[in-house]
Specification:
CATH class of the largest domain: Alpha Beta
Shape: globular
Number of strands: 35
Helix content: 10-25%
Radius of gyration: 28 Å
Number of helices: 20
Strand content: 25-35%
CATH superfamily of the largest domain: Peptidase S8/S53 domain
Structural class: alpha/beta
Length: about 775
């Protein structure tokens, strides 16, 4: 006990030292000057440089010292100054204040801080959750392999021995020596190639670099593993952007890698279901506690148990192993969500409160602010796409052969429905210096590209296009600044436009996705052998990379699940999922409703599931909806499985009822799921739910509040749940009565149980489908 305390105290001291101020002679100061009364960005910047020149020997030195010029909504600048220079500027009459820019506590591209899992409080005391829990939990990552040399996979200080329950191994292979690659952090590594080679042929190692081993050339697996359980690594960034401390959700948890996805063509990765099912088999035997799998098949979805993911995750659930899947990147159209099995967790992607603003000045007249991940300034000629592409459509196949050297091309996503990748390849092919890509603001997400690329909205793009059309010369002079990192300047989260939406096309009475997590521009570990864009045209090398996708959201949830399992080892996968869903929130950082990217509407449960993940609340949810063996039997009955088949796939305990209910007497709606979805309400029905008190107080009183879906009366009985030492589990009933004529329209409400401290919220999704009944009654 004493040794553990000293170890934890040592970690606390080490992390506290990180916040000791620098002793360098100069620091970054902010000079605030109030409103921008000049109203010209270029003149404002020149004025700032002029002020700085008072405290430097020359204008050139002043320019070098300036980091940013605040020249639009207000006036001011950031510069590197010593204390004497700062004091001198503070005495200038038009300067309101001068203050030192403090070091912000940015961690894992900020996503974990954004979710409330901070390493440090305001008093610089280490919060124990992430640092004190997780050693006993093993997370299996099914992906493209691992780059073991990354500091994300080094042993955390004071990390104990590998759990005795672990039976896995590290398999040797090409450029992967278990003696040096594996440690007390990376405790297992396997790779599966047979299924891939049988289905797609042998790896083409001449054209596509790969390793026949757990080592991953493609960075996807390294990135997801780092996000879920990566060790704490300070002072990292992507070319200076998103700077901070990287860490996984459970930095002390153990990692087991199962390489099931491989290069086929350079830009494509394929995962054989044969290999995936073998990985499930091995992982469950090895002793993993959580499986994170960021892959899936696009709709139309095959029936349950006709997919390796459904089969593997079902057996994992029965062994108490939680399986977390990504929802897919086919949004924002409805019903394209994947991985919809009720025994696994399906995760949508959302943004955080961080942006990468990039300032542009055209002909010293027009100022535009977009977003980019560019690390360099650009001075070039801005031209319209019509000069280089047939009908102005920015596609590499439509290039006219004219060189765009020294130019930045303006492209629109709505001209020919061009994708961002199309436009980047087209600009690269034309040898352009950069790309300005205009698209709807609901889809505006900057990403790493092979060519400097700035994303702007359609309004800004239209403004630039019309300006260019009025010029008598071929183009305009454009000055593009390097991207910067802004925190808390925009609301978050917002559901990412690409995140796949519900309802489930396979089981519409079960809400999918289950919840959302950060999945936009997540910074995590990357193999330095692979370029950040994974393009052969890219010659850069990085150790950390920014990626977006539900693939990035999935390991965020996996890391939180690992923490929950460490704190509550007796909770089932269903109980853990319930805790995550019923504590998820639906308000952004400005306390307004979360928006759905890809549209201007408020996010509903088909966009965001039960809401955005709230790790701290999920540790103590108050009540949980657990699913027992009988629930899964009913589900299997509903999808057509016979009693004999059910007995072959379900672990049965003495007294378990394996019979199927009478035909027509049950639906998926009656499963004890944390959300309630009725996709075909034609008349009054009653639904049952059962909750278990997992709060610290065994005697508790929970009162209910209800928000009715439009056109539906909701009655809850009983309206008060009384828990005691002898009554920890209670059932309640929900009666739904339609009082409107409708067809094909979903309406949303919620049911909240509260004891005054816990708020256990269940989404209520109802589609009244009785229009035909009304018509029939009228005809009679």
């Amino acid at each position: 006990m004493a040794a553990s305390f000293l170890c934890f105290w040592g970690l606390s001291l080490l992390l506290s030292l990180y916040f000791i101020p620098s002793t360098f002679a100069s620091h970054v100061y902010i000079v605030y000057m109030g409103l921008n009364r000049i109203h010209d960005p270029l003149l404002t910047t020149k004025h700032h440089i002029g002020l700085l020149s008072y405290v430097f020997a020359s204008e050139e030195e002043a320019k070098k010292s300036m980091l940013y010029s605040y020249k639009h909504s207000f006036s001011g600048f950031a510069a590197k100054l010593n204390t004497t220079q700062a004091a001198t500027l503070a005495n200038i009459q038009e300067v309101i204040s001068v203050f030192k820019s403090k070091t912000l506590k940015l961690h894992t591209t900020r996503s974990w801080d954004f979710m409330g899992l901070t390493l440090d409080t305001d008093d610089h005391e280490v919060t124990p959750l992430q640092l004190a829990h997780g050693d006993d939990i093993i997370v299996g990552i099914f992906d493209t392999g691992i780059w073991p040399e990354s500091p994300s996979f080094r042993e955390e200080p004071c990390m104990g021995r590998v759990p005795k329950s672990w039976k896995g191994i590290c398999v040797a292979g090409e450029e992967f020596d278990p003696a040096t690659a594996c440690n007390r952090k990376l405790i297992g590594a396997r790779y599966y190639l047979t299924g891939f080679q049988e289905q797609l042929g042998h790896l083409n190692e001449t054209e596509n670099k790969e390793f026949k081993s757990p080592r991953g050339f493609r960075g996807h697996g390294t990135h997801t593993a780092s996000t879920a359980v990566g060790s704490i690594v300070k002072n990292i960034s992507f070319f200076g952007l998103a700077q901070g401390t990287a860490r996984g959700g459970a930095p002390r948890a153990r990692l087991a890698v199962y390489k099931v996805c491989w290069n086929n063509i350079y830009i494509d990765v394929f995962c054989s279901e044969a290999d995936i099912l073998k990985a499930f088999d091995d992982a469950l035997h090895d002793g993993v506690h959580v499986i994170s799998a960021s892959f899936g098949a696009s709709p139309p979805l095959r029936p349950f148990f006709n997919k390796s993911a459904d089969i593997g995750s079902f057996h994992a659930m029965q062994k108490g192993v939680s399986v977390v899947f990504s929802a897919g990147n086919s949004g924002p159209d409805p019903s394209l969500v994947t991985n919809v099995a009720p025994w696994s967790i399906c995760v949508a992607a959302s943004s955080i409160d961080r942006t990468f603003p990039t300032h542009m000045l055209v002909d010293h007249k027009i100022s535009v602010v977009g977003e980019s991940l560019n690390d360099k300034e650009i001075n070039a000629i801005l031209v319209n796409s019509t000069v280089f592409f047939w009908r102005g459509i920015c596609h590499p196949d439509l290039w006219r052969g004219t060189s765009a050297l020294g130019m930045v091309i303006l492209c629109f996503s709505i001209m020919g429905q061009v994708t961002r990748i199309d436009a980047e390849k087209a600009a690269w092919k034309a040898n352009a210096s950069g790309l300005i890509f205009a698209e709807p603001s609901t889809r505006q997400i900057p990403d790493v590209s092979i060519i400097p690329s700035v994303r702007i909205d359609i309004n800004q793009g239209t403004k630039l296009r019309n300006y260019l059309s009025r010029l008598t010369r071929p183009g305009a002079i454009v000055q593009i600044s390097a991207g910067t990192t802004a925190i808390k300047k925009s609301p978050g989260p917002t559901v990412a436009y690409f995140s796949s939406r519900g309802p489930s096309s396979l089981s519409p009475d079960i809400l999918k996705p289950d919840l959302s997590a950060p999945g936009v521009n997540i910074l995590a570990a990357w193999p330095n052998i692979s370029t950040p864009t994974e393009s052969t045209d890219d010659n850069r090398s990085v150790d950390w990379n920014l990626l977006s996708g539900t693939s990035m959201a999935c390991p965020h949830v996996s890391g939180v699940v690992a923490l929950i399992k460490s704190v509550h080892p007796d909770w089932s996968p269903a109980a853990i999922k319930s805790a995550l869903m019923t504590t998820a929130y639906t308000r952004d950082s400005t306390h307004d409703s979360i928006l759905a990217g890809g549209s201007m509407k408020l996010a509903d449960p088909f966009d965001i599931g039960a809401g955005h993940i709230n790790p701290l609340k999920a540790m103590d949810p108050g009540l949980v909806y657990d699913m027992k063996t009988r629930d899964y039997i009913i589900f299997l009955c509903n999808i057509g499985y016979t009693q004999d088949l059910i007995r072959k796939i379900v672990i049965l305990y003495p007294g378990t009822d394996t019979s199927c209910p009478p035909l027509g007497h049950t639906t998926h709606t009656n499963l004890n799921y944390p959300s309630i979805t009725v996709s075909d309400l034609q008349s009054t029905i009653t639904i049952k739910r059962t909750v278990r008190n997992v709060g610290y107080k065994k005697t508790a009183f929970y009162f209910v509040s209800v928000v009715n879906p439009d056109g539906v009366d909701v009655v809850i009985w009983p309206r008060l749940l009384i828990f005691t030492f002898f009554r920890q589990e209670i059932s309640y009933y929900i009666t739904l009565k339609p009082h409107k004529k409708s067809q094909g329209r979903y309406d949303f409400g919620k049911i909240v149980w509260s004891d005054g401290f816990h708020y256990v919220r269940s989404p209520l999704i109802v589609r009244v489908n009785n229009a035909a009944n009304y018509e029939a009654h009228t005809t009679i």
